[in-house]
Amino acid sequence: MPGTQPFESGILNPPEACAACHGGYDETVEPYYNWQGSMMAQASLDLLFEANMAIANQDAPDSGDLCLRCHLPRGWLQGRSVPTDGSQMLSTDESGVSCDFCRRLVDPFFDPLENPAEDEGILAALSFPANDFGTGMATIDPTGARRGPFVDATSGHPILVSPFHREAALCGTCHDVSNPAFEKDGEGNYVPNAFDTTATDFSAHTIAPVERTYSEWFYSEYNTPTGVYAPQFGGNKDYVATCQDCHMRDVTGEGCGFGTPPTRTDLPLHDITGGSTWFPGLLSTLYPGQVNDAALQDGITRARYMLQNAAELAAVQEGRDLKVTVTNNTGHKLPTGYPEGRRVWINVKFYDDSMALISESAAYDPATGVLSHDAETKIYDIEPGLDEVTAPLVGVAPGPSFHFVLNNAVFKDNRIPPRGFTNAAYADFGGAHVAYSYPDGQYWDDTYYSIPANATSAEVTLYYQSTSKEFMEFLRDENTTNTKGQEMYDLWNNNGKSPPEIMAQAQLTLAEPVPGDYDGDGDVDLDDYANFPGCMTGPGGDILPNCDPFDFDADVDVDLQDFAGFQERFTG
């Protein structure tokens, strides 16, 4: 992959060096403390990453280099990604995605009117320059100058004003992930490149998709000059347009504890919050002394807030159906990011007048981690896998698969798109919906549930889960290299099994059905009459599904006695 290559960047400073000025003065706004509470800071300590990388190296030897490039950039830039299991990384490399990495990022597209003049020479000196954003193709300033967006900043170290640091493209460096071993052919299939050959094009529109968060945002209404009204995310902003607007929201405070820095109302909070609430709470036990537990707990609180504002949930009764609407309030698909195990689902419970549970859709068992799949279950997720051409080449069955470095097809993707999406644009960058569809511009989804007889109320809950039982079992069972898969499974099994988070809830009282109103439109007419013969089972026969409105005498069948009641109720 292009971008700054090993030994072309100089050495990234440890984040502790930045803490001297950017930490220890105000935990509510200072960069260092809030960064410590993010998963960016833990990218190199993520056991799930390590377990997944072990299988990746098994499936495609040396593919772990691609993982290490984003998760341990300090060591990667110093050539310590060989071997690609990370065994040559130093303890000083375990700083995740830290201050010096982001602060030294250079826009790969030089613009003399916007970018620092120094960038022209930096880009010209690269042996393999990047011409796109994604898959870790970072360009790093080798001089050590730190970059930021403020023109009035002063510092004890060299600084450069960089508009790039306000742009979502900077985040796209690692948050559009592709597999460069596959390229899209003229028919939209992703086919393997020749051995020992780089891709002909490193664009997300060409090489195979793994994650497409940046592209999902790029082709949405958020990527406009005005953006989208979302004060719940923007801090001091009412409208959000870039990744930074939501994930580094504007607060009021000082960016430095040294000297007399200006008080800003547009200070980006360096919390870089996502949706992780389970794994951060385990890090203090896994890595005692290496992490800041207080910062991580604050990060969990912020992530929970983010999840609780990422979607809206509405439930209304329409006749004998319950209509549930989930609206995506994020700037990307809901959910987005890595596809293995991450999911959102709708849980629906129906109760009778004594509050006894009558039925439940998408029930989750916290004791086993099993999410039930009934006929009406709605789970929002993506299922990548291998097509029938590629699967035999690598000895894996065709179909959905967790072998992410081998996957070259998508078998399901019903995740809710953001405002302003179009099917054509999403198909072009490998983000098309599969086995599901949304009209252009639709950023919500409707699901209908049949209301059972005797149900008088319903409770609807939208859940998010960062990883699933199925993925944990895959990591455990497929790893033949080391113990990381078993360790990750044990961590999951012994610590709540990645308990789902409640994103939103709705409760409603259900109206009693009108006797004889089969179609639920509030009257009894010829449309209902047309369905009566199909429901008749005769005296003593079992009542058929959805035929409860015709059982006038409540004897659990539909016969001629009920037809007499139907005639009395008929209003035309």
Structure characterization notes:
The chain is of the alpha+beta class and about 575 residues long. The chain folds into 3 domains: about 15-40 and about 95-270, no CATH class; about 310-510, no CATH class; about 525-570, no CATH class. About 25% of the residues lie in helices and about 20% in strands. The protein is built from 19 helices and 22 strands. The strands form 8 sheets. Strands 12, 13, 16, 21 and 22 form a 5-stranded antiparallel sheet that branches. The chain has a 3-stranded antiparallel sheet with strand order 4-3-5. Helix 3 runs antiparallel to helix 17 and helix 16 runs antiparallel to helix 17 (about 485-495). The longest helix has 17 residues, at about 295-310.
SSE arrangement:
Blueprint: H1 15-22, H2 31-36, H3 47-59, H4 64-71, H5 73-77, H6 99-103, H7 118-124, E1 146-148, E2 159-161, H8 168-175, E3 176-184, E4 190-192, E5 207-212, H9 213-218, E6 228-229, H10 231-234, E7 239-240, H11 243-247, E8 250-253, E9 264-268, H12 283-286, H13 293-309, E10 311-318, E11 321-328, E12 343-351, E13 357-361, E14 364-365, E15 370-371, E16 378-380, E17 382-386, H14 391-394, E18 399-400, E19 409-413, H15 423-428, E20 444-450, E21 457-465, H16 469-478, H17 484-494, E22 501-509, H18 526-535, H19 560-569
Parallel strand pairs: 1-2
Antiparallel strand pairs: 3-4, 3-5, 6-7, 8-9, 10-11, 11-20, 12-13, 12-16, 12-21, 14-15, 17-18, 17-19, 21-22
